[in-house]
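ok trying this again, last paste got cut off
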Amino acid sequence: MSGHSKWNNIKNRKGAQDTLKSKVFSQLSRLIRVAAKQGGSGDPKSNSALRLILDKARVANMPKDKVQKAIDVALGKGNGSQIQEIVYEGFGPGGIGMMIVSFTDNVNRSSAEIRFILGKAGGSLGSPGSVRYMFTRDHEGEFVATMKLPVSEEDSAKLAELADNLRELEDVEDVFLACDLLEETEE
């Protein structure tokens, strides 16, 4: 009867479900922050985009405290601690520069999480100014690469996965790369 542990099966199944929920909640949280920031209000009655996202969050059974925290982050409110924007500079596989925009109330936690994910993918966190010269910031606050570096197909796939992993973090708002990712072609 080896491998037929009911507890182990439940643990594995619950772990997989929790991972999926976490991914969905972080995506919804990001959408809530964007809608609240663009609408300028955390009130769904006056912000139709936020109302639509809140309906999606309700369907996904997202807890109210996570919804309220996402709205507070977007509006710059915090529960006792101040939410601040931090822009991290880093290098991905192949030495490609990246700007990582984060809104957080805990700088140490955010930098540790970002450093861990970058390190796991073969990248590293850069010092201030190490990558910024490759980007300009447009009027909407987004970074635009002024220098685009060449990238191999292998590095392009790794960079796409790294950017997705970083965006899954709750505090990370967006990730900008100093290259154009190659489209995967299936033959």
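PB: full thing came through this time. The radius of gyration is 19 Å.
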